[in-house]
Fold each of these.
Amino acid sequence: MATNREQTEPPRWADRLLEGFVSPYLLEDLQGDLQEIFYKRVAQVGISQARREYGWAVLHYLNPFFAKPHHRTGNPAPYPQFASLDPTMIRNYLKIAFRNLWQNKAFTFINLFGLTIGTSCSLYMLLFVYNQYGYDQQHAGAKQLYRVSTEVIEPGGDPFQLAPSSPPIAKALQDDFGEIMAVTRLFKDPGKERFLLKKGNEAFYETKGYYADSSFFQLFTYQFLEGSSQHALDEPYTVVLSAETAGKLFGSHPAINQSLLINNELYRVTGVYNETYGKSHIRAHFLMSFRAGGMVEFLRTSNQWVGQNLVYTYIRLNPKADPHQLEAKLPAFLLHHGQEQLAQVSIKKSLHLQPVTDIHLHSQLDSELEKNANPQFIRLMLLIAGLIQFMACINFMNMNTARSTGRAREVGVRKVMGASRSSLAGRFIGESMLLVTMAAVLSIPIVWLLLPILNGLLQAELPVMFTHIGPTAVILVILILVTGLLSSFYPAFYLSAYQAVNVLKGNLRNGYTSISLRKGLVITQFVGSITLLIAIIVITQQLNFIKTRNLGFDQQQKIVFTFTTPEAQAQRFAFTTSLRTKLAITQIGSAANYPGRWVGENMPMFYQPPGKKAKMGTGVWVNRIDETFLTTLHIPLLAGRYLTQVDTNRQVLVNETTLRKLTIPLKKAVGSRIFLDYQNLREDYTIIGVIKDFHYRSLKEPLRPLMVLTAKPKQLNYVVADIHTDALPELMNRLAATWQKLIPAIPFEFSFLDADIQQQYEAENALLHIINGSALLALLIACLGLFGLATFTAEQRTKEIGVRKVLGASVSSIVGLLSKDFLKLVLLAIAIASPLAWYAMNRWLQSFAYKIDLEWWVFALAGLLAIGIALVTVSFHSIKAALMNPVKSLRSE
Amino acid sequence: MKRTFLGEFEEVVLLVLAACGDEAYGVIIWEQLQQQTGRSITISAVHATLYRLEEKGYLSSQLGGATAERGGRRKRFFALTALGSKALLEIQAMRQQLWQAIPDGKLQLIGG
């Protein structure tokens, strides 16, 4: 509550402001006048209006005119308290700072260059990291949203966590627990990565089409541009489009209530949402009603509690409910509903709750909707950004001390004139702030220009930073302050401590502490650079290893065609038949999944030895193929035979690993009976052949059991063709023409098998790009630093070198003498960096099931590179110093 | 010494001050200014101009005795110096001259 005093007097903040800002020689009559007006206004317009006017009037005094001390006739101006803060002095400082920068163009350039690189690098990385935060915050009551994830423990296998769960769980959760206010399910069809969207003559493939329960928008807040979220997905065959998708289909015309074909089924548009409103781990391009027949309808009404972990279940909790308490009740809940089903299979399963707002940043489960942020990657980015910026700071420090001989005289003169140490230190800080600010300003256009390239390398969707002006500005200001303070801290205290008398007499001594500090800083720089160098070599080696490793099949010169729509599938046979007539195409095979794009089904499989009970189980990946698929990929047979056209889908091939897991000897394999537990139904299969192990999934995973069987024609989504031709463009043109003739409604698209396989290593490639770039920058900055330090040393030892030369030392001995010091630093840096890099790279390699060994020569190579680069940098100055005429350097004595 | 230049606002302030009695201080001058010119002026502009004119030597100022009503703060009374009077007179003379240089009848056309 306002006190009486506050009610009758001018606002206190305004008075404080005035007293703090206005020159004391003016304050009394200014304030007197203001208060006189104030009390007059109180009588006229009332207290609150008068107070507002007073505050407003005070703000007008905040200009330099009122702050500077005024000379009055009769009373000479006393000596101002803070002469160094006088505008005239500040102008002088700026002038001197610019002159200093201008005079030492080489130093300014090196510093500015290093700082600009560092700041650009940090700015991009910090923007990248910033962009990973704040996901799913836009939903109303986002804190109460949870996803139900599944943990599966297979017999004899490691437990693994899946993001999706079984279909009936959502409904039952809502029925059983009062604290759950709403539930919804989202389904991403693993068999349909792309959907064909068609409207009139427009037809194109679109990814990220998901099916959602009608309650979806009760949990998730979407900004609707057309229609409303209220009942958007209530009716069967309705679809909600993102603005971008709607634009592709309908242009600028309204989309609402229009119809379109999605994979040849008629849907009605009930809404268009703004996909740029908020960031979400669900980045759907369009959302279809869960009531859409076929497989979707089957899932929607499924009562499978253990398997079919295919739908993403989300719940909204009562704000007062405790998610931990609810999670604790889930095992009993699962048992209550699915006891029978759980008992039948030897799989154990449990449910967990994940806060939706944490998913993007912290969730790394199997079958995530999107590739989520990798926290390790984010930490690495921050570390590298900090490292590079720090290295640029170190340079700045070292450069400043290296220049100290020249600057010392200025310090001496200023001290004699009465400058205090603090004002000198302030000046150094200000000077570096000036340079850092210049670097920051330069970094803005650099990052802006490089943004598309960097985003391409990192597969990042970083929006242009001008849509992020606030955060960009905050990041830059923080960078300027931290870098400016850090880089000027040392020179500010080091240089300002000079004794004026000694400086002017010419006694300049550099204490041992400053020299060893500088050396320490150089070592730090090189430790960073060498570690990054080693990382480059190791990551490149590992990626090469992956690229060249024999995957167990032939991935060269294979083209993949996609047939996901019924329309296309109807023509698949005709298309493959026409492919066979092309001379360049030797083999063609079709399958539901192929290496590089292997979603597939993972099921529990069991083996029942004759006369015994079935107990051996293993998880197995299942692929449905035609009879030529395995031979097209050149996958060798170890026993039995390949599939033929007459085989039923009960006759299967398995890989070696399956036999090992089920402990079936190879000799007895053919004819053995195995069975799958498929939705509580035991399905028996007979092994008719064993194929050699091949890597059908990424090399990050160990080889798992595989079973292949004959597919129904509509399950064959992909056709792989083995081509042998030099005239690829011509062949592709002919194929496109054939496709156009057969399936005109669907765009002709294809991919290369080896490229698809490489796509699995996107994250590793991005990492390599980051490390590559930053190692280059780090090394560059470290060398700039070394260059500066070499300048300093050469300058310091000019006289020593002169004496040595007069006494007959050779040029080479002097170069050696000067280089030796730096070599020692680099060697020490190698010694420190090697174990560091070994530890880091070893940890990284652990993420691969198949990996290279770390070899000693990697470290030697990185070390030699560093030494070489350092020597080249230093030799410029050592040679210059060694060649100098001793007469020149000794004359001043 | 080069001729000191007087801005339009400075000139008006000087004139108002000249018109005031002995006890001219910030608030009075401000009120008079607004009344005489019909403009809305901030008090800070008046203060800045007064001090600037003082620096230039057109004005002198003196602190009055303590008063109770302005929080015990003293008033600063401004007075025209000889230089100030001279500057005003010179301006008037120059204006006069310029007015006389206007041919007869021209002003009617302008609408005066």
Note: The longest helix of chain A spans residues 421-458.
Amino acid sequence: MDRIRDQINATARRVPTWAVYILCLLPAPYFFYLAVTGNLGPDPVKPLEHKYGELALQLLIAGLCITPLRQHLGINLIRFRRALGLMAFAYVTFHLLVWAVLDVQTLGRVVEDIIKRPYITIGMAGFALLLPLALTSNNYAVRKLGVKWRKLHKLTYLAVFLGGVHYIWLVKGIQLEPLIYMAVILGLLALRLRGRKPSRIAA
Amino acid sequence: MAHRWINTLTHNDITPHRAFLNRRQVMAGLAAGAGLAGIGGAAHAADGLEPNSYEDITQYNNYYEFGTGKTDPARNAHTLTTSPWTVKIDGMVDKPGDYAMASIMEAMTIEERIYRFRCVEAWSMVIPWNGFELADLLGMAGVQSGAKYVAFETANRPDEMPGVRFPALDWPYVEGLRLDEAMHPLTIMATGIYGKPIPNQNGAPMRLVVPWKYGFKSIKSIVRITLTDQEPPTSWNKANAREYGFYSNVNPEVSHPRWSQASERMVGGGLFAKRQPTLMFNGYEEEVAALYEGMDLKANF
């Protein structure tokens, strides 16, 4: 186990963070291309909207995995956490744009939907919570905010939870996939509620 | 028996299947060779009434018994045995019993009906169905005078329907109509699409089509029809009564709690297609508005 851990940590040290940005961004134009060329089915707006939303949720979840991986398994991927968070924010933004511009199409109705439809209100709340986090994800803000930065970025927990609720609420009937996402999210949040063990590797 | 309904959409409104496929290939060639320009706009006629391709209609389905994704039914529904098939007709009828699908088909006259189809999720298609009027089938069984409603039930076969192994809904799927809605000449039992037998994912061997209501009212793969004097339960109403009423008429003025119903995306229009305004009773107002005279459609949504 220790050998595997050390190997992962050694490999991770060699991966530049810009590679993570590139890798995370690639699906965006790829799925857009599929949608334009009719390869996401005859009603491409919804699958594209859903794909971006799902990717956002997946990246948020990946970001939530970083700390427990370090605390419980000694795997240190903290260098990539900012990239994951910012890319998650990017996909939430893409998701929102596809919904507003290609799906709903009129500003009046976008506003109406945000106000009138609770699952959209919740989704928008999640986006609003992520906005200050994205804006403070630069070295200057991290230095400037100091201890407050860590507190502020705990808003992620609420944002990802709202994302999970948004997903469960938007599907028709009871569907398995959003429930699995929610279980994973709650599991990762629960790890943070338990007494914190001191990290095995000095940060 | 009910008077005949005259179709206003004709064969001229259908893109011939082969022509459609040819155009798809041409467009695919264009996309590969010359970039993406023009794809979004090319697929649409100005009036928005261009019927969907056979491919769209049979590859893009809601049929939760075979999975909740739009492509799940086309992938999974081949496991359903549709022949032999028996439909039980019971309740307040003169001749209750198990009717073999083959004998129903022999007794009925199949005709083509080109209908708009509007899903509660705010997408729509135009579909050339083949089928017969439900009124004719009910006439065959002999509706008794006290009957006020018709209840329908879908097959419930966990071995053949992977979706019913998970409680997405309370299986089997059930639906219902008021008797006058059921007897209306627009209401048909569809057994084909584009002149071909209806594929499993579209509700083989026989499904209901009620074109002025949201698509989920048009129950698929029917195994039982019951005449009753009580309003029957319906699956989506049981799952969420606040969102899915018994009537579920297409109504741009009654907003679904989760989807605005004022406009719709026409399937097949591409990524940049403009939404279309939704028509009252899905465009069949002239034919069916009289059924609801004096009713508050906001309360009876």
Note: The two ends of chain B are 28 Å apart (CA to CA).
